[in-house]
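hiii so um. not sure if this is the right channel but i have a protein structure encoded as tokens and i wanna go backwards to a sequence. like what aa goes where. can anyone help
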């Protein structure tokens, strides 16, 4: 197995990483703040299940924000 450095990555992979990483962090922060402030009755499923799910990138925050919250 070879070790790839940042400079060894193709340009498209570096650009994609620099764009997507902040988006994932922002989604996770928004979802975590919402989860901490929202009453349990307004969430589909228990909060204790959603907390670890938020850190499954990028699916957890997207699922929580799109489906886990009740209107």
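sure thing!! here u go:
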């Amino acid at each position: 197995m070879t070790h790839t450095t940042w400079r060894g990555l193709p340009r498209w992979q570096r650009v994609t990483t620099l764009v997507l990483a902040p988006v994932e962090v922002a989604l996770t922060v928004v979802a975590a703040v919402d989860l901490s402030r929202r009453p349990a009755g307004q969430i589909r499923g228990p909060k204790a299940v959603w907390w670890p799910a938020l850190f499954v990138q990028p699916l957890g925050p997207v699922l929580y924000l799109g489906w886990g919250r009740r209107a």
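oh and The chain is about 60% helix and 0% strand.
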